[in-house]
Amino acid sequence: MATPYSHTRRLNAVKALAALAIIITLILMPQVLKAELMQQLQRFEGDSRVETSVAISRSLIPYAQLRDRIVVATADDFADAQAATPLAVRAGTAILITPGDFLHHMVKHELQRVLRPGSTVYLAGGQRALSERVQESISELGFNVVRLAGETRVETAIALAEQATHLGTVTDEQVSRVFVVSGHTFAPGLITSSRAARDGGLMVIGDAGIAWAKTNYPSTPITVVGDEWTHLNGIKTVPVEDVRTLVDRLPGERSQTMALASLNNFPDALSGGVHAATTNRDLILVEETPTAELGTWLRSHYILDCIAVYGGQAALPDSAVWTLTQ
Asked: What local confidence, expressed as pLDDT, does residue 41 receive?
């Protein structure tokens, strides 16, 4: 026969088990949610910056969907690849990066995978960016190599923009806007070039880029990014107060989806900018330890279940993504 004492003991035991279950749930739930979020990410990564670009190319160009063009840029600097982003998107292709003095074996295999025989490989930059050895190695694969370059990164950006406009018949109306960046730092240019590519625009560098845009596209809007410019005569200027949220101030329609890459280094975003533009994502550059304020801003602006991340854990760890999305 149950006594009041035994009944109390059973009740206390039930309460203790319930409390324990709540504690375990509180401990495990964040980990479960984090695991679910990480599974929803599209992370493109390789053992090196070159292999990350190959991983992105494989996503953009599935097997059995061969291309007639692709862009190759140096993995050692940012200016040429970022200026080539609109060209790659207009061509419906990818940007592969390789060391400047030799053709990386992974890039060689990717070129053979994605291109039809006799296809065109655009080299973004002069021989100081991509050596003659790189050009010869690609030619030996049976591809037509077209080097798009000038004496400086400014002139190279113009050459890349001009080639982009030659992909079909392009009129002023078909170039939505010309963006101009300083070319001194990578983050504003990477964000801007991806937006330009997504919205049918072009991106050039410096005062010479402004002059080129005025001459060749007199009826097309020009937007200058940065606050170091003077005497712009009414040209719209977008200041760079915070490169992480620059995307919100650039002209054009903001996307509901986003892509993340490192703010501390440029390589992964070189190819990632093409992927973001092609898949209609805003490219956001973030630090390894992002602020809670940035996370609040991102959560109020973007859908969180379809995020692309460019680079591995060393570039942008899961902990950073979790901070931005929790």
From this structure: 83
